[in-house]
């Protein structure tokens, strides 16, 4: 026979009250995250204004290469809601995304113009960037240059998932590339955003990240979820608002 509980003894919390408690904690964290997003928005606009405009405007400075001989090029794009039309624009964004995987954005910004200038020469690529797997991927994609028209049609028909056929593009980087080439306005569920999402009560996984970023965009009156994603990533990748050498025109982030 189970022992009787003494009068006045504390009762264990019911499962229902525990659920309510967790929900209240999540709601509080979410509410605080809106204020943090506003801080992220202000920080990104102040420290990387041209990069923020790049996400949503027609004429943009793609990449700068301080202390290098690479010429800075101005490219004209339609709004980043339409897939880029030229292979050169596509390859530049592809190269940036491949380099950025596992590296800081400033590193990708520094190496991208140098790698693009190699025009797919694998030996030259490896001379610039000592990662054989990545430089081989770049050379392979550059060799597809003559097939760009059909590739573009495939991406328009197949959407973001079709990008995974490219070397070094996976389940997370496909969103990064899709956003940057104008194939899809989306949130990029990288580690920075996944951790922030979980820590602030929005849940875990890519779908939770998308819901969170869309909520931030709606709350702040931002039309493009990709823009909301970008400014939040800038803030998070800068130690939640710590200025770095890439700020104020140091390097272009994507």
UniProtKB/TrEMBL annotation:
Residues 1-25 are annotated as: Disordered. It comes from the Eukaryota. Residues 10-25 have a biased composition (Low complexity). This is DNA glycosylase.
């Amino acid at each position: 026979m189970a022992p009787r509980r003494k009068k006045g003894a504390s009762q264990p919390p019911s499962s229902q009250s525990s659920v309510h408690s967790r929900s209240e904690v999540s709601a509080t964290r979410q509410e605080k995250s809106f204020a943090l997003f506003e801080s992220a928005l202000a920080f990104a606009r102040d420290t990387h204004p041209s990069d923020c405009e790049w996400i949503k405007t027609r004429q943009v400075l793609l990449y700068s290469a301080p202390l290098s001989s690479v010429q800075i090029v101005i490219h004209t794009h339609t709004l980043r809601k339409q897939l880029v039309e030229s292979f050169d624009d596509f390859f530049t964004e592809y190269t940036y995304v491949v380099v950025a995987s596992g590296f800081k954005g400033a590193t990708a910004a520094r190496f991208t113009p140098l790698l693009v200038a190699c025009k797919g020469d694998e030996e030259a690529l490896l001379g610039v960037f000592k990662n054989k797997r990545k430089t081989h991927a770049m050379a392979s994609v550059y060799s597809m240059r003559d097939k760009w028209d059909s590739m573009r049609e495939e991406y328009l028909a197949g959407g973001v998932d079709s990008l995974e056929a490219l070397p070094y593009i996976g389940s997370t980087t496909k969103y990064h590339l899709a956003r940057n080439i104008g194939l899809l306005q989306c949130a990029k569920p990288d580690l920075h955003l996944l951790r922030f999402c979980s820590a602030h009560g929005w849940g875990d996984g890519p779908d939770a990240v998308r819901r969170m970023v869309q909520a931030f965009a709606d709350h702040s009156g931002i039309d493009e979820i990709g823009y909301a994603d970008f400014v939040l990533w800038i803030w998070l990748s800068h130690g939640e608002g710590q200025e770095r050498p890439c700020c104020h025109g140091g390097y272009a982030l994507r």
